[in-house]
Amino acid sequence: MSVSLRALQLRSGFLYLLVLSFGFLPAVLAQQVSPELLHGLTWRLIGPYRAGRVSAVAGIAGDPKTYYMGTPGGGVWKTTNAGTTWLPIFDQAHVASIGDLVVAPSNPNIIYVATGEQTDGNGVWKSTDAGSTWSNIGIRDSRFNPSLLVDPKDANVVYVAAPGESVRTAFQTPCDAYAKNQAAAAKLASESLPALNKLLAAEKLAAVTYTAPPASVPACAR
Question: Backbone phi, then psi, for 94, in 5-degree steps?
């Protein structure tokens, strides 16, 4: 029995539409999942499988598979497959203690790492190629750097919490150091706090205030 050309065209068109509809089916079903079905989900460990604490975690907006993790004594790790595997990416820095880690919101290839948490660090490091290479950008004398904040619009503007005592060696006596550090802190606060608080407000974080310490301490009284 022969089949007409028109019948073959109709059959081919039907099969094409059927395949096309199955191609769109997963996307349609994904959009129709009820939130109630998610209630049974529970947290699970996705690695790395190591003992100890995690001091910093960062992800990339719009990329559900790439994450970075900093540890107090194990360096920085990266996953590009949602935690199936993790790779150490900070070994070239020769410092294992991580205080904080931030991916620049405006450029996911730029990453800042503040070192010094469980043990001494050696400043702040920066990568411009998503963690492939690193360079130390300063604050080497601060042994512990617990926090970073990167401007969401300008990846080159970063604030670092960097306590330390090394600046005191620049002065002849502790009393001179106290007076000069107090003046320097007041000057820095007046110049930097407005911009910092504007950034914090955009992130819905509490503003930073500066309270001047006493004009002198008993040991420095003359």
Answer: 60, 40
Cβ neighbour number for residue 80 with a 10 Å cutoff: 14
Residues of the chain above pLDDT 90, percent: 35
CA 117 remoteness from chain centre: 16
Direct distance between the N- and C-terminal alpha carbons of the chain, in angstroms, rounded to an integer = 117
Q: Where are the beta strands (DSSP E) in the chain?
A: 56-60, 63-70, 76-79, 87-88, 98-103, 111-115, 124-127, 135-138, 147-150, 158-161
Total residues belonging to the chain: 222
In this predicted model, what pLDDT tens digit does every residue of 28-65 receive, in sequence order? Answer: 445 577 778 777 788 887 777 665 789 999 999 999 99
Angle at 111 between CA 108 and CA 114, to 5 degrees: 155
| Phi, psi angles (nearest 5°) of residue 27 | -65, -40
Report how far residue 200's alpha carbon sits from residue 160's, in angstroms, rounded to the nearest whole number.
13
Candidates 164, 163, 96; CA nearest to 125 is: 96
